[in-house]
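hey team, just a heads up i'm posting the complex here instead of the shared drive bc the drive is being weird again. everything in one block, sequence lines first with there labels, then the predicted structure for the whole assembly after. its two chains so it's a bit long, scroll down
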Amino acid sequence: MITRSLSALARALAAREISSVELTRLYLERIARLNPKFNAYISVDEEKSLAQARAADDMLAAGQAGPLTGIPLAQKDIFCARGWLTTCGSKMLSNFVSPYDATVIERFNAAGTVILGKTNMDEFAMGSSNETSHFGAVRNPWNTECVPGGSSGGSAAAVAALLAPAATGTDTGGSIRQPAAMCGLTGLKPTYGVVSRYGMIAFASSLDQGGPMARSAEDCALLLNTMAGFDERDSTSLDRPKEDYTRDVEKPLAGLKIGLPKEFFGEGCDPDVMKRIEEAIAEYRKLGAETIEVSLPNMKLAVPAYYVIAPAEASSNLSRFDGVRYGYRAPEYADLNDMYSKTRAQGFGEEVKRRILIGTYVLSHGYYDAYYLQAQRIRRLIANDFVEAFKQCDVIMGPTSPTTAFRIGEKASDPVQMYLSDIYTIAVNLAGLPGMAVPAGFVGGLPVGLQLIGNYFSEARLLNVAHRYQQVTDWHLQHPAGLD
Amino acid sequence: MKQWEVVIGIETHVQLSTQSKIFSGSSTAFGAEPNVQANAVDLALPGVLPVLNKGAVECAIRFGLAVEGQVAPKSVFARKNYFYPDLPKGYQISQYELPVVVGGKVAIQLGQGDDLSEKTINLTRAHLEEDAGKSLHEDFHGKSGIDLNRAGTPLLEIVTEPDMRSSAEAVAYAKALHALVRWIGICDGNMQEGSFRCDANVSVRPVGQKEFGTRREIKNLNSFRFMQQAIDYEVQWQIAHIEDGGRVEQATVLFDPDTGETRAMRSKEDAHDYRYFPDPDLLPLIISRDWIERARSALPELPAAKKQRFVTDFGLSAYDATTLTASLEVADFYEATVVVAGKAAAKPCANWVMVDLAARLNKEGMELAHSPVSAVQLGGLVARIADNTISNNIAKKIFDALWNGEGKSADEIIDKQGLKQITDSGAIEALIDEVLAANAAMVAEFRAGKEKAFNALVGQAMKATKGKANPQQVNELLRRKLA
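-- predicted structure starts here --
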C-alpha cells in the first residue's frame, strides 16, 4: 500500500479496500516509528489527521469523493494551516499556531485530503540542504549521513522514506527540484502565478512558487490539479481557465524538440551526474525526441542576481517578525529597540540573518541602483534568453543540481558553495518558468535528477515529457533500503 | 534690516472614504473598539497578501481629474521599510517613483471683497498609501497599547510645489483642498478624527535670493488655526535664528498648541533610510483611458466651473460666487433656493444664504446640513420679497418664524400672521393722514427745516401699518403730502 501511486490509492479507497482512517493510521504509525531517523516532520497531530480522515471516509461513503479524497499528504511547514503549528522551520515561529488556512491548504481540505503533518524545511526556506532548520537537519533516506537537499528537504525525505504518499513544497531558487533530485522524487515548480501564494509564508515574493513533490509525474499532475487556480487573495495569481494537468500525459514524444543549453553542459557539474543526465537524454532520443544545442548566455549571472533580489525581498518580508504581535519575543529587554534587536537576534538563525543583512544592504540608499536595479535588469536578460531558446525547442533539459546529495555539514560553513548547489535551478525562478526534477539514475547509491524546463504555462507538456520517460524507466520506482 | 521671504510647501494626508481598507476587506469606520477592525492581512500574519481596493484608486482618479493633474496610466506600489509597533508588516505600502497622480493645481482665493485675488498652487504629485495603526501610551501601566483598526486605511498623500509665500496662503490652500476633497466625495474632511492632516515644509530666504533656504517640516497639523499659528511661529523662529547668526538645520518639528511653539522632533541625521523598492506582492497599477473617462463622467460639476456659471448665469460678483462655491453643500443649497425663488432673484438669494442664514447658523453654532430653514423654504421667502408681497423687514421676521418652526413655508406664515404688504396707496394715504394729524409737532419741526423729523414721521407711519406698508411707497406719499 505505501508504495502505491496516488491514483492507485484513490482506487483502493473507492473500492473500500482500505479506508482513509486506516491509510492515515498506517502512515502515522510509520511516522511515529521512523521519523526520528529522518527528522522529516516538524509536527504531527494524530487527532487532527484522523478527524480529516473520518470526514474523507464520509465523503467516500456519500459518493462525493474526488480524485484525491482520503489520501494523506505531507504539507511543508511554510503553508499556514488552521490550528496547526506553522513554524517555517524557525525559532521565530516556534510557537505560532495559524488561525487561518493558506489557499493551497484550503484547496486540499476541500478535495478531502488529510494533512499527515508539517514537514521540516530550511528556516524560512533559505537553504539548499535543510541544515538551517531550527528543528534540526533532515537526513536523506538514501544515506542518512547526507542532506536531503533544501529547502523542501522534509517533504522530500518524507516521501522518499515512505512516510507520505506525496507532499507539497515551495521553490524560490530550486527548493522543490533540488531536494526532489537528491531524494529520487519527481517535483514540479509551476509557472509563477499558477499556485496561489496566499498563506504560504513569503521568502522572496517574486520568486516563490508552491508545487507538488511525489513519486511520479502522474502523481504530480493530480496534485497540481488541486493546487493550481486563480486566487483573488493573491494579486500575482493568474486568472486563467482551469486546466487538467493529466490530460496530455500519455501523448507520444515523437518530434519533441529538446534544447540542451551549452551552459548546462560545461564545467561545474560532477561528471558522474552528467553521465546520468546524458543517458536520460539518450533515452528521450529513443522515444523519438530530437535534441538541439541552445544557449542561455546570461546563465552565469543568475546566481549573483538571485542573491541580490531574493535577500532584498526577504529582508522586507521578514520585517513583520518583530515580537510585537505573535511568534517569538526575547524574554528580557530594556526598551523597544532592544526588544526588536534581541527578538530578531535570538529568533532568526545565521543564514536568515545573513540574507536579511545582504537584502538590507542592497536596498540601501546609494546602493539600490547598483545592486537591486542591476539585478532586475539581469533578470530580464535571463528571461529573454529563455524566450529565445524556446523559439527553437519545446523543452530544455539538463542537470537539476551539480552534485548528488552531499554530506551533512560538508557545505554548511561555506555559503557560496551552498549557493552554487542551485546553479541550474535559479534561472528558472528568475524567469518565472515551470521546471521539473525527474529521477534519472544513481551515483554512488544517491539519486540524480534530470531537470526539465518548459515555456510559460507548459506544465501539462512537462508532465507528459516526464511521464513518458517514467513509462520506460524505473528510477522513480526505486526505494531506499531499510524503511520497514 | 533684511527683508525675508517665506516659502511653504504642503503635504496632506487625505483619508479616503472607502468602506473597506486599501489592501484588505476590513471596515474603515472610525471609533470601533481597538483591533476589532483588523483581520489577518491588517495584522500582517505570516503568509498574508495585499489586494488593492479599486475604490481607493477611483478616489485617486477623481482627485487627479479635479485638479487637472495627469492620472498615471501606470503607477507602482512600493514598500517603505521601517520598524514601529503600529506598523504591522515592518513596511508601509506606498507609492514612490511612480505615483498615481502627477502634477495638478489648486486655485486659492486671497483677500476679501474688492481686494480679492486668486493664486494657483501647483501640485507635485498625489499618491496612494496605507495608514499605520495607533500606539496608545495611556492606561497601560508603563507599556504601550497597539490599535490596528486604522492600519491599512487608504490615504491619498497630496504634495504641493513650494508655492506658498505666507501662512495665509498656506491656510487658504489647505481650506481649498479640504473643500475640494469633500466636494468630489473622496474624504469626509473630519479633521478631529484625522481624516485630513497637513505637514508644512517651511523655509525662509532673503527677498531676491533664488535658492531656497533649509526647510523644517511641521508635522501633523490637524486644524487650520494651528496651521496658521505653527507657521507664523516657525517663520519667526527661523528668521530670529538666522539673524542671531545661526543656521537652520533640516528637521522635523512638532507644533504644541498649548505653548504655540514648534519644537524639533528629529534631525536629518536620524532620518530613516526607508529602502523603498517596488512591492512584489502587487502588480503595477494600470489605469485605462476608459476607467478615467468613466470617473470623469461621474464627477460633479467642479467648484471653478460652478463659480463661473454663478457669475455668468446669475450675475453674481466673483466674491459672492467664490463664497457660494466654498463647498458643494453651500453651492447646492444656494442653487436650490434659486430654483424656488427664480433666476431673477439669484442675487437676493445669494445675500440671504451668505448673510442672513450664515449669520444665524454661526450664532447658533450649527452646520448648514442641520439648518432648520431649508433651501426650499428660503427660496419661497425670497420669492415673496421679489414679488413685493413682503418687505425685507417682514422677511426677516418670517425667517425667524421659519427657523423656529412656526410654519411650513413663508406663504403659510404670511397668511397666518396677515403679513402681506399693504400696497393699496389709498389705504396708505388714509393712514398717513392719521399720522400727520396725530403728530402736528413733528410736522412743524419738519417744515422748520429739520430733516430728522421726516424720518420720525416715516417710522410712525410704518408703525401704524405694523410694518406691512411698502417703506418706499410710504416715503413717497409722505413727501407729497408735506410738500
